[in-house]
Amino acid sequence: MIDARQLTKRYGEKTAVDSLDFTVRPGTVTGFLGPNGAGKSTTMRMIVGLDAPTGGSVTVNGRRYAQHRAPLQEVGALLEAKSVHPGRSAYRHLKALALTHGIPQRRVVEVIEIAGLGSVARKRAGAFSLGMGQRLGIAAALLGDPQTVMLDEPVNGLDPEGVLWIRNLLTSLAAEGRTVFVSSHLMSEVALVADHLIVVGRGRLLADTTVRDLVRAAGGDTVQVATQDPARLRDVLAGPGVDVTGRIGSEELQVTGLTAREIGLKAAEHGIALFELSSRQVSLERAFMDLTRDAVEYHGSTTGTEAAESLGRTA
Ligand SMILES: Nc1ncnc2c1ncn2[C@@H]1O[C@H](COP(=O)(O)OP(=O)(O)OP(=O)(O)O)[C@@H](O)[C@H]1O
């Protein structure tokens, strides 16, 4: 559990994080969303004590990070590209980390497996691709088998297989009852994996909500499903607040009141094959853009004249 109370960070005149109040709960993936410069990284750095708050406080499982006796076993974090000695292998890097934190060596082998680094673990980390570097950072974050896992933009640099791997990893960590907090500036990415969302802009809290409520508020909660067995899927999905429509004899159903993820999970649970599963993500993306419109620091639509004027002002 991560608990931020009136958390504030100022750098001179700039308020990077502005009186944030939020709670990240165990057993679920919480997405931390906001446009570039919204204060996500600064908040995460304060959670693990790499930056001191100017005001307010943030605790992990009831204590400030520095007050934990074995912090690596409490919170595993992937922040911006970790400094790994380029001449050191992934294995030796993790081994050194384990040694200095009293973590058994067998855990090093385990996290190498979890991170899919088995075939490159003995190679120099300096020769790693961005994606391999991310995997090594994630292996390091999981080393202490922490109850809380926090990842800053983890899909950066990962190929499609890596992105899928991250999604599955986050979901299974949450299913084990851990607190999973993951930042991104892409709603489409977060919506696939997170149940809960904390949205920030210019350091302020814009929304503390569920993906489901945000979708509902955007009026885009229809999910298109095509299945082998529509009658059975209707029965499986039936419940309060859920509405399923579809033509008789058609494989296609339109579902409201459940997310694509919930439908996919229920179908899998009952062994029902799906041929299509698509939510109206465009409206979800739009809901995020509407929420953060006034908080975006750099608008791509700035005209040449405006850009020149603003350059002139700062010059
Ligand atoms: N050390 C620092 N000194 C001065 N300003 C800083 C410092 N670190 C961050 N900032 C400023 O604080 C604001 C928030 O930055 P932060 O990196 O936390 O945002 P972010 O949401 O993580 O953005 P991004 O997605 O671009 O990483 C930005 O305007 C940034 O320029």
From TrEMBL:
Alphabetical list of SMART domains matching this protein: AAA
Keyword DNA repair: no
Family: Belongs to the ABC transporter superfamily.
Annotated InterPro entries: AAA+_ATPase, ABC_transporter-like_ATP-bd, P-loop_NTPase
PROSITE patterns in alphabetical order: ABC_TRANSPORTER_2
UniProt GO molecular function: ATP binding; ATP hydrolysis activity
Source organism, top-level taxon: Bacteria
Record's keyword annotation contains Transport: yes
Organism: Actinacidiphila yanglinensis
Residue ranges occupied by any ABC transporter domain in the UniProt entry: 2-227
Keywords: ATP-binding, Nucleotide-binding, Transport
SUPFAM superfamilies with a match to the protein in the record: P-loop containing nucleoside triphosphate hydrolases
Protein name, entry field: ABC-2 type transport system ATP-binding protein
